[in-house]
Design a protein that fits this description.
The protein has one domain. By secondary structure, the protein is of the alpha+beta class. The protein has one helix at residues 11-64; strands at 66-72, 76-83, 101-109, 113-119, 129-133, 141-144, 154-161, 170-177. It is built from one helix and eight strands.
Length: 185
């Protein structure tokens, strides 16, 4: 009679393997739960940054089509530019074959939001529409050349938003020169 060798796991080996498996699954589960809790906050911040970039692209496009800057401060800019509406302040767009019309566009930023007003040339009042909320500073606009005597031909826009990590604010910035500027005004 020959002794046969029986292969398999002992009870101790099975218990150790199961314990290690439970620890690994617990760690993976806590990582998944943590990621799912943070996801809405991360998505909201990403959406805010995307919206801020869209606002900057729109503003710089309008500035590039600008004729002149009429009022300039750190929290507001008012300039005459060409728009694709049938009337200044209207919501109906022009046909693709029609030429753009000159209108006065004013962007005003407070410590929490930016708004846009569109009116007839040289008119800076009208119905303001909020275009962005969630900024952390009203010092949004800066201009070149500096000084009061020379007309402004370049506008830098900087939007700062609170950083969820608590560090320095998230900053999105861009700038544009008025390519249709009339410097003799």
């Amino acid at each position: 009679m020959t002794a046969r060798r029986i292969e398999g796991f002992t009870l101790i080996e099975l218990l150790v393997a199961m314990t290690m498996g439970v620890v690994v699954l617990g760690a993976v589960g806590s990582l998944v739960v943590s990621a799912m809790k943070d996801q809405p906050r991360i998505s909201e911040r990403a959406q805010d940054i995307t919206t801020a970039r869209w606002v900057l692209e729109r503003l710089t496009r309008e500035l590039r089509n600008g004729i002149r800057i009429d009022k300039a401060s750190e929290s507001s800019v008012s300039f005459e530019t060409y728009v694709r509406h049938t009337t200044c302040g209207g919501s109906t767009f022009l046909a693709a074959t029609s030429a753009s019309i000159p209108c006065e566009v004013t962007y005003t930023c407070t410590t929490t939001r930016c708004s846009r007003t569109e009116a007839a040339p040289k008119v800076t009042t009208g119905t303001a529409k909020t275009i962005f909320e969630g900024i952390d500073s009203s010092d949004v606009f800066s201009y070149l050349p500096e000084g009061e005597e020379e007309p402004k031909t370049f506008v830098k826009v900087t939007l700062q938003m609170p950083n969820p990590a608590g560090d320095a604010p998230l900053t999105v910035s861009d700038g544009a020169s008025l390519r249709n500027a009339t410097l003799d005004n």
